[in-house]
Structures are given as structure tokens and as C-alpha cells.
Specification:
This protein is an alpha/beta fold. Helices cover 36% and strands 15% of the residues. The protein has 15 helices and 15 strands. The chain has helices spanning 3-10, 43-61, 88-95, 109-120, 144-152, 170-174, 185-198, 218-227, 237-244, 256-265, 308-320, 340-352, 367-372, 387-394, 400-403; strands at 26-30, 65-69, 100-102, 127-130, 156-159, 181-183, 205-209, 230-233, 271-272, 276-280, 290-293, 302-306, 323-327, 358-362, 381-383. A six-stranded parallel beta sheet has the order 3-4-2-1-5-6. It has a six-stranded parallel beta sheet with strand order 9-8-7-13-14-15, with helices on both faces. The protein has a three-stranded antiparallel beta sheet with strand order 11-10-12. The longest helix is centred in the N-terminal third of the chain and has 19 residues, at 43-61. It is elongated, with a radius of gyration of 23 Å. The two termini are 14 Å apart.
Length: 407
């Protein structure tokens, strides 16, 4: 299969026909509601919920019996702190969705039998929330027996969890092979939005990649270097490039393994690095910062953000761009004095979006910045995918959770 055909196939995800009767049909709906359950819940997490709740309501209104499946965190066994029961209040008060909770283990016959009985006696339009799928042994290994257990509860499968589409898990891939399967509207919207980045994107195409570790984003950077005209590297990721150039970065964090990777990437003229940075003695609230050229960092200092000259240069690239993608902060954006670079880049992208420029932002640490710009509605698309978004670009659309829907 050629790269071009991958894009075309990805655009043809099967959607539920509006004429197809769902009255009394049992639907196993995979969503990604992996959101903070404590004080960390914010507008980004609300967006993640609301997009898939639209699919839940559609299924409910058409008379389906909906079994919602999601993971929460990385539990070791049945960690009740990560029980999906804790989502009920958020769903009810925040989104007006009332659901029944099924706290039973689907990897055990007794639990599976109990859920099967409850679902079999449910009325059309009933919505249930299953327990955290990662409580089930074999979920992350795509265990065939567990996939069969999921499938035994439903008549059809709908995946609306783009943020989990890069995982070959039982509730993402395994169950899809056993039931008639479809893409939810949220997943379909994500794919359509991101395909524009990899299938004949309008030029010039500028990519902004930030964050801490280059090794976690090497594949997406390599893919972007093939299709983009400019790839701007910010955040602590840029430090590996500075070290590769034998520049002083003081006490700044650097991923040692990333330095070797950076040396190879430096040969590519599409790579853009900061020309100035904001530094301080210690990165903390209330820190006193100064701006210096990249060559002016002292051994006692730490880099916290890109500098104003870099912001200006990169904003000029955005002003000329027809396609822009942004993933990863340009600095330690959670601290106000080091948030300017990310906010400037975000506002520049937003100002050009929904016009001559197609602008996409994604990533769990990037979306809060996009919202903080006060211009989030201006972006063409806010991807809640995070890692899935990056892997979608790197794999040219061929994610496990998408491929299985095409069979």
C-alpha cells in the first residue's frame, strides 16, 4: 500500500448510516475519557468529554442500548481511585448525561454474566458506563478472550476514541474484529482534520514542535521534514540541538539520548532553532528572567522560553504559511514569565487560521495554551489526540484503531 492510498483509505472510515435502525441494538462504544479526576480538570478535558457525548446522545436518541468503555490512567490492578464511577458526577453535572455504572470485571465469568444479564434486560435508549477497561487483564495486550467477552455484550462496535487509536488494545482493536464496526463522529472529525496535514497540504507548511524529549517525537519530526517547508523546534527539545552544536545551556534540562538524534537532524535545512532565549537562575514562580542570544547562556542559568527575536522570526513564517501544525509548548508555559513564547506563537497561528492558513493544534500540554490565548475558537481544529495525533502524522494515517475499522 502506497502512502497516498493510506490517506485515501483513512478518509473512508465507516460511519453509521442515519437510516440504519438502532432500536434495541446493543452498542459497545469506545471513547477516550481519560481525564483528571481531581482538581486538574479543565476546559480541555471538558472538550474531550463533550465531543464523544454527542455520539452517546445520537445513539441514545436512536434507541440503542449504549455500553460506554474507556480507560483512566495506568492502573495496577483494580485501583478504585481510577474507577470510572468517578466520572458520573462530571457527566451528570457538567454535561447532563445520566448513565448507569457497571462496576463488574469483564475478564471474569461472574462479572461478565452479571453485565450480560443487566444489558439484556435494558430498555432502548439506556446508557451504561463500564468499569475502567484497564482493570481487565489482557486489555493492553489485546487478549482474544477478553475481546470476545466485550463482543458478547453487543451487536455492533463504535470507536469514537481517536486519542486511543494508536493503541492495539482489546477495546480498540480486538473487539472491532468481532463485530460490525463503525467510526464515531469525533474520531471521523479528527481524521478528516489531520489528513489535511499529510495529504497534499497547502504550501508553505510550517510545523512547530515543542516539549521535553526529542526521542519521543523523532518519527513525527522525520515525517514532517518530508512534507513541511519549515520545522521549528522549541521547548527543552531544542536544548539537545544546542548541545549538538556545542553551545552552553547551563543547568537546563537536556535529554542525553536526544543529542545524537539532534546531530543527524541538524543537517536538514528545514530545521529552525531559537536564536535567542529567556533564561533565569531557577525556573520557578516569581523568577527573574533575562533575554540573551543562544550563545549568551551562562553556566549558572536555565533556559525557560524562546526569546522575542525568535518569536518575531517564527511569527513571520506563520504569516507566510498556508498550513500550520503545533504540538508542544515553546517553554515552561505553566509559569507566566516563561509562557510568552507559546502564547505569541499560539496567537499568531490563531490569527491566520480560518482564512488563507489552515491551523491545527494538538497535545495535552498544548491545548491549555491554545485556550489561554483567548483565541481558541479561531484555530481550524483543536485535536484532543495528543500522542495519537503525532503517530497519525508519523504513520501517515495508519493507526491500529483506524486500520481495523477499514476491514
Amino acid at each position: 500500500m502506497t502512502s497516498k492510498s493510506c490517506y485515501t483509505v483513512a478518509m473512508k472510515l465507516p460511519l453509521l448510516s442515519t437510516s440504519k435502525s438502532l432500536q434495541g441494538k446493543r452498542v459497545f462504544l469506545r471513547v477516550d475519557w481519560n481525564v483528571p479526576l481531581d482538581a486538574g480538570f479543565d476546559a480541555v478535558d471538558s472538550l474531550k468529554l463533550s465531543r464523544s457525548i454527542a455520539t452517546v446522545n445520537m445513539l441514545k436518541e436512536r434507541g440503542a442500548i449504549v455500553l460506554i468503555a474507556t480507560h483512566l490512567g495506568r492502573p495496577q490492578g483494580r485501583d478504585l481511585k481510577l474507577s470510572t464511577k468517578r466520572l458520573l458526577t462530571l457527566l451528570s453535572l457538567g454535561h447532563g448525561l445520566e448513565v448507569g455504572h457497571l462496576p463488574y470485571a469483564l475478564d471474569a465469568e461472574r462479572g461478565l454474566s452479571r453485565v450480560s444479564s443487566i444489558v439484556s434486560n435494558a430498555l432502548p435508549g439506556t446508557v451504561f458506563l463500564l468499569e475502567n477497561v484497564r482493570f481487565n487483564k489482557g486489555e493492553e495486550k489485546n487478549d482474544k478472550k477478553l475481546a470476545k467477552a466485550y463482543a458478547s455484550l453487543a451487536d455492533l462496535y463504535v470507536n469514537d476514541a481517536f486519542a486511543s487509536a494508536h493503541r492495539s488494545h482489546a477495546s480498540v482493536v480486538g473487539v472491532a474484529s468481532l463485530l460490525p464496526h463503525f467510526a464515531g463522529q469525533n474520531l471521523s472529525d479528527e481524521v478528516k482534520a489531520l489528513e489535511k496535514l499529510i495529504e497534499k497540504p497547502k504550501k508553505p507548511f510550517v510545523a512547530f514542535i515543542g516539549g521535553a524529549k526529542i526521542t519521543t517525537k523523532i518519527e513525527v519530526i522525520q515525517s514532517l521534514l518530508q512534507i513541511a517547508d519549515h520545522v521549528c523546534i522549541g521547548g527543552a527539545m531544542a536544548h539537545a540541538f544546542f548541545v549538538a552544536q556545542k553551545r552552553e545551556i547551563g543547568k537546563s534540562f537536556v535529554e542525553k539520548e536526544g543529542v545524537v538524534v539532534a546531530k543527524t537532524l541538524l543537517k536538514n535545512k528545514k530545521i529552525h532553532l531559537p536564536v535567542d532565549v529567556t533564561v533565569t537562575k531557577k525556573i520557578e514562580d516569581g523568577a527573574i528572567a533575562r533575554v540573551v542570544p543562544v550563545s549568551g547562556v551562562l553556566k549558572s542559568e536555565m533556559i525557560g522560553d524562546i526569546g522575542p527575536k525568535t518569536m518575531q522570526d517564527w511569527s513571520e513564517l506563520i504569516a507566510q504559511a498556508k498550513t500550520v501544525v503545533w504540538n508542544g509548548p515553546m517553554g515552561v508555559a505553566e509559569i507566566p514569565v516563561f509562557s510568552h513564547g507559546s502564547l505569541v506563537i499560539g496567537r499568531a497561528i490563531a490569527a491566520r487560521s480560518k482564512g488563507k492558513t489552515y491551523g491545527v493544534v494538538g497535545g495535552g500540554d498544548t491545548l491549555p495554551i491554545a485556550i489561554a490565548t483567548g483565541m481558541s475558537e479561531w484555530f481550524d481544529y483543536l485535536s484532543t489526540g495528543g500522542g495519537a495525533m503525532l503517530e497519525f502524522i508519523a504513520a501517515k494515517g495508519k493507526l491500529p484503531g483506524l486500520v481495523c475499522l477499514l476491514k
